């Protein structure tokens, strides 16, 4: 089927605003009477708060209020999407370096910031934990009380791993580590709350407006209808802006002071907002004599930080798929969410999968060496075909993954001879969509024939706004330029689960598609009424309505029905994910997000310097909705992955538990100088997805397997297997030295 | 808190402004808070991210590091002043064409840095483009599309210049 709008590189919605400086973001928003709040943050990883002296602060010109934990009515209001565990402000104790202990509200940002320095806090520091090993050590009292720091444990599996191990020809056991990673959005965190109608309006760059509404309402004991979330255009989120951060406190302050309050963070404070879960993955993989996987036995310990945020969900969902992308007859997986005295962790592009993929793909690279086999071949042998079971009880493999593998290999010139120091590798990235989710959309056909879409998806650069406009334009046959998409206002848009898990094209896209179908049905009904004919005799084609001899435009129909310049036709559409009873995650996946990334590197053996010569990707995405945007997701995702592969890591001081590199100078992310010389990608379109026009989710994929692609390429070039990210030149330098020492010994 | 105030006059996007500034205010602050030109973004305020890049007398600078009293008599070009009655600047066009904009937060600074580069060097190599944009962080695009956009804009500008001759 040929499409007019879908699959074309239509102009990104609002891109003209973005290149001309017209686009407004959260930090540009002001409301009359607005006050600024700044937060005083704990210097300690863990401490009792003995006293907070604000007497000097209150005397300062321009300071309106100072609020400490002790000033808030008890029980302390707490918030969180999984557990209601985060206090508005520290309640007698702090649990991580950077935890807010007091808020200064002032007439200007600058006054509030300066006033923080006048607050005197007396702490009694306590022993803290900031690694998996420390957190599991029983000597230090658990972060949140109770028996241990293991907040949740999830057990999955099938078959008989013990028996399979006995039967296996080769068993490889190893441990791989993934560090804490900061999302590093270029737009800082901020939010603005204003009292209204006995409740509050919140302006926030938030990915999940309805979820934020629920969390704030629960925390402040308000009905949902009295919390309106207006999601701002987001300047980069990547999972970090999914869940409530300072919004409950902003809402509390606005209600208390009866005036709008803005909390604007500086960049360094972002490091205290959210991060990726660190993980230690203990994995045992068995193979038969032909290098077919016989079992996987995995314990994935995720370090989640002081409060739950969304981390337990990340651990559960990733743990569920920790058997990996390969045919696995027997599997046993344990995934644990472990508290620590570090900033809380949350969703981050890949939702817990990069940590696991790092482990099971490095296993494949090692196993290939054992079998004397090409690393492409061992993957080919183990990848399932379309229709095969991957996880028993869930959807079968829904794409041609072998086609993906072959195309990626081709892009990487697989088999071509390499010079000394060169190496290459492919790595598989996989995750599932969010199960049991809901999206609703409203599509309005106006009396002039133009169209507005209302949906609660957030636009954060991923391009959802553009894709929804394309879907509406295609379905209703109206020019793309005549469609506007208004997003993220819970006061206007119906319920949506989240902007996460690469779900929006499939889920909200389906809702938009169905809302358009609802509009078309009403068009026919109204035309039948107008013409005095049966609905069956009405045809709508290419935006033209035919009722017998009579032809009408949408505009003529709406105005013919409601009167000159009046009326809208309002369509509603809904997507519901699977909710199979008894399913461990609440329902089966909507799709698998499947990608292969390849890297070619050159290693300077003398210094350990690694040049990434080429990065490639091949993604099974069902249908490309917008070429330019899809390509942008692939390239951008790979470089985000490259940062995690080669440079990024939040470092905590083991002695004090303080974050050492929470600023943009010490925490390095890729710049234009760090990207590969060459990049190539292919998007595989077999129209076999559940979304509109056969689409599947995409966008997270490319960030998932870059670690093992680079790690595998380094292994190929040097024979050195690294087990802990990031792969820095320094690490490789010492590993090469070890390798040479061992060589000369043996 | 304020040490002193100074009245300064300077041009932004070809318009004359007279404002009172204090010693510790940055150009970025003046543009955003006093002139309402919020197209210039602020992220790190330390010269690390490039989000606040503008042209100061034709050269790309981090406006968060420029002290407001020092811009008396200067000419500033911000993202808001790049397009004119004839339409978008070639760089703006190229950023759209190449898909070099995602969330768009880095975009104003990125485009202004690129503008500074092309004013100095109308035919930069790929390496020179990467080097010139090294101080502008983008977390979305992976930079490839941005480099392509700058190359393509440079070509357009050169072609337009040679046609004009
Ligand atoms: S805000 Fe000026 S360089 Fe980052
Ligand atoms: S487009 Fe989002 S930071 Fe560059």
Number of domains of chain B: 2
Number of helices of chain A: 18
Gap from first CA to last CA of chain B: 56 Å
Task: Fill in the CATH topology of the largest domain in chain A.
Answer: Aldehyde Oxidoreductase, domain 4
Topology, pairings included?
The complex is a heterodimer of chains A (746) and B (165).
Chain A: H1 15-20, E1 35-41, E2 47-53, H2 55-59, E3 63-68, E4 78-79, E5 86-87, E6 93-94, E7 100-106, H3 109-116, E8 120-125, H4 132-136, E9 150-158, H5 161-167, E10 170-178, E11 190-196, E12 199-204, H6 209-220, E13 227-231, H7 247-257, E14 261-264, H8 267-270, E15 278-287, E16 293-305, H9 311-320, E17 330-339, H10 353-371, H11 375-382, H12 401-411, E18 422-432, E19 438-446, E20 451-455, H13 464-476, E21 483-487, H14 507-531, E22 538-541, E23 544-547, E24 550-553, H15 554-562, E25 568-576, E26 592-604, E27 609-620, H16 627-646, E28 678-684, H17 706-718, H18 729-745
Parallel strand pairs in A: 1-14, 12-13, 16-17, 20-21, 27-28
Antiparallel strand pairs in A: 1-7, 2-6, 2-8, 3-7, 4-5, 9-17, 10-15, 11-12, 11-14, 15-16, 18-26, 19-20, 19-25, 22-23, 23-24, 26-27
Chain B: E1 5-12, E2 15-22, H1 27-34, E3 53-56, E4 59-62, E5 75-77, H2 90-97, H3 107-120, H4 126-132, H5 144-164
Parallel strand pairs in B: 1-5
Antiparallel strand pairs in B: 1-2, 3-4, 3-5
Helix pairs in contact in B: 2-5
Bound molecules: FE2/S2 (inorganic) cluster (2 copies).
One FE2/S2 (inorganic) cluster sits between chains B (101-107, 138-141) and A (186, 236, 461).
């Amino acid at each position: 089927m040929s499409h007019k709008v879908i699959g074309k590189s239509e102009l990104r919605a609002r891109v003209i605003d973005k290149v001309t400086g017209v686009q407004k973001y959260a930090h540009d928003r002001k409301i009359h009477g607005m006050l600024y709040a700044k937060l005083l943050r704990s210097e300690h990883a863990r401490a009792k708060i003995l006293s907070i002296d604000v007497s000097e602060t209150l005397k300062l010109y321009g300071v309106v209020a100072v609020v400490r934990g002790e000033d808030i009515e008890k029980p302390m209001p707490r918030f969180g999407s999984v557990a209601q565990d985060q206090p508005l402000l520290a309640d007698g104790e702090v649990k991580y370096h950077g935890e807010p202990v007091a808020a200064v509200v002032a007439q200007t940002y600058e006054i509030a910031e300066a006033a923080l320095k006048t607050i005197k806090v007396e702490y009694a520091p306590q022993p803290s934990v900031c690694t998996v090993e420390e957190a599991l050590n029983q000597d230090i009292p658990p972060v949140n009380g109770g028996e241990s720091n293991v907040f949740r444990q999830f057990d999955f599996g099938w078959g008989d791993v013990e028996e399979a191990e006995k039967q296996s020809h080769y068993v490889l056991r190893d441990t791989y580590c993934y560090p804490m990673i900061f999302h590093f959005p270029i737009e800082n965190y901020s939010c603005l709350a204003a009292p209204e109608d006995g409740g509050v309006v919140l302006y926030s760059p938030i990915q999940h407006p309805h979820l934020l509404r629920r969390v704030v309402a629960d925390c402040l004991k308000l009905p949902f209808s009295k919390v309106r979330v207006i999601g701002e255009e987001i300047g980069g989120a990547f999972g970090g802006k999914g869940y409530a951060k300072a919004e409950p406190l902003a809402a509390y302050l606005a209600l208390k002071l009866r005036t709008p309050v803005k909390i604007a963070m500086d960049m360094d404070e972002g490091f205290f907002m959210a991060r990726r879960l660190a993980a230690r993955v203990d994995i045992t993989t068995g193979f038969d004599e032909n290098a077919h996987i016989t079992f996987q036995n995995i314990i994935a310990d995720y370090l989640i930080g002081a409060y739950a945020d969304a981390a337990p969900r990340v651990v559960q969902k990733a743990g569920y798929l920790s058997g990996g992308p390969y045919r696995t007859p027997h599997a046993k997986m344990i995934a644990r969410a472990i508290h620590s005295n570090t900033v809380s962790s949350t969703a981050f592009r890949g939702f817990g999968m990069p940590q696991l993929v790092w482990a099971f793909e490095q296993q494949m690279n090692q196993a290939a060496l054992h079998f004397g086999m090409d690393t492409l071949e061992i993957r080919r042998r183990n990848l399932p075909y379309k229709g095969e079971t991957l996880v028993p009880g869930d959807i079968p493999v829904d794409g041609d993954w072998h086609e993906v593998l072959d195309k990626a290999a081709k892009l990487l010139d697989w088999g071509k001879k390499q010079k000394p120091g060169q190496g290459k590798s492919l790595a598989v990235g996989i995750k599932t969509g969010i199960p049991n989710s809901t999206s609703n959309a409203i599509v309005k056909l106006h009396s002039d024939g133009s169209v507005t879409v209302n949906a609660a998806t957030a636009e954060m650069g991923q391009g959802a706004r553009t894709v929804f406009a394309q879907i509406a334009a295609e379905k209703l046959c109206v020019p793309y330029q005549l469609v506007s998409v208004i997003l993220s206002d819970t006061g206007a848009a119906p319920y949506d689960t989240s902007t996460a898990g690469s779900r929006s094209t499939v889920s909200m896209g389906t809702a938009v598609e169905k809302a358009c179908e609802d509009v078309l049905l009403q068009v026919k009904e109204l035309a039948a009424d107008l013409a005095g004919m049966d609905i069956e005799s009405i045809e709508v084609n290419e935006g033209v309505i035919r009722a017998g001899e009579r032809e009408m435009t949408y505009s003529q129909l709406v105005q013919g029905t409601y009167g000159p310049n009046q009326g809208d036709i309002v369509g509603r559409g809904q997507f519901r994910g699977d909710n199979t009873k008894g399913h461990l995650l609440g329902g089966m996946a909507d799709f698998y997000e499947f990608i292969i990334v390849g890297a070619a590197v050159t290693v300077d053996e003398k210094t350990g310097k690694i040049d990434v010569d080429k990065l490639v990707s091949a993604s099974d995405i069902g249908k490309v909705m917008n070429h330019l945007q899809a390509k942008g997701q692939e390239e951008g995702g790979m470089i985000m992955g490259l940062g995690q592969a080669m440079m990024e890591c939040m470092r905590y001081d083991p002695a004090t538990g303080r974050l050492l590199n929470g600023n943009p100078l010490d925490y390095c992310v890729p710049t234009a100088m760090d990207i590969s010389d060459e990049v190539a990608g292919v998007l595989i379109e077999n129209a076999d997805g559940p979304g509109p026009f056969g689409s599947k989710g995409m966008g997270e994929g490319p960030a998932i397997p870059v670690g093992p692609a680079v790690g595998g390429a380094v292994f190929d070039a040097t024979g050195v297997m690294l087990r802990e990210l990031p792969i820095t030149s320094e690490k490789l330098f010492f590993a090469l030295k070890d390798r040479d020492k061992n060589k000369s010994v043996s | 808190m304020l040490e002193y105030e100074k009245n300064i006059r300077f041009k932004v996007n070809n318009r004359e402004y007279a404002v009172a500034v204090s010693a510790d205010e940055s150009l970025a602050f003046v543009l955003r808070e006093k002139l309402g030109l919020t197209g210039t973004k602020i992220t790190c305020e330390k010269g690390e991210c490039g989000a606040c890049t503008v042209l100061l007398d034709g050269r790309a600078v981090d406006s968060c590091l420029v002290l407001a009293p020092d811009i008396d008599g200067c000419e500033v070009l911000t993202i808001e002043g790049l397009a004119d009655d004839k339409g978008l600047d070639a760089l703006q066009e190229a950023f759209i064409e190449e898909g070099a904009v995602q969330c768009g937060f880095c975009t104003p600074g990125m485009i202004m840095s690129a503008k500074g580069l092309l004013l100095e060097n109308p035919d930069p190599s790929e390496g020179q483009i990467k080097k010139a944009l090294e101080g502008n962080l983008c977390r979305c695009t992976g930079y490839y599309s941005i480099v392509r956009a700058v190359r393509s804009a440079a070509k357009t500008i050169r072609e337009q210049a040679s046609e004009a001759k």
